[in-house]
């Protein structure tokens, strides 16, 4: 794998991690919309937390891509990185809240 291919794979992983997190965000917004009255919907969204979560999805996707370097790039690999962006963000946020926010 050349340096160019490696860089493209890592950036693709970062993007797919973000996509996984955005799927999680959309699901969360849908649940929030169902619970909140329509006039208060925008007030319940913490944009700072939203941006941080998306960034964490990018980090999770990047870590996944680094872990999967050298693997054949097929649909399964791409969906795996999206899933890691979805689930990995939850894991990383939980870790951060447990060890850094509570202290």
Descriptive overview:
Helices cover 79% and strands 0% of the residues. It has 3 helices and no strands. It has helices at residues 3-35, 47-67, 75-101. The radius of gyration is 16 Å and the shape is elongated. The termini are far apart. The mean pLDDT is 85.
SS-derived structural category: mainly alpha
Number of strands: 0
Shape from CA axes? elongated
Strand percentage lies at under 5%
Mean pLDDT: 85
Topology:
Layout: H1 3-35, H2 47-67, H3 75-101
Give a concise summary.
By secondary structure, this protein is mainly alpha-helical. The chain is built from three helices and no strands.
Features:
103 residues; mainly alpha
């Amino acid at each position: 794998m050349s340096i160019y291919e490696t860089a493209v794979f890592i950036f693709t992983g970062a993007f797919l991690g973000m996509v996984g997190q955005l799927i999680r965000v959309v699901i969360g917004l849908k649940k929030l919309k169902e619970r909140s009255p329509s006039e208060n919907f925008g007030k319940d969204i913490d944009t700072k937390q939203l941006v941080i979560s998306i960034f964490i999805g990018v980090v999770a996707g990047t870590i996944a891509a680094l872990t999967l370097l050298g693997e054949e790039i097929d649909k399964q690999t791409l969906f795996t990185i999206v899933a890691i962006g979805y689930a990995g963000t939850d894991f990383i946020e939980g870790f951060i809240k447990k060890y850094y926010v509570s202290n």
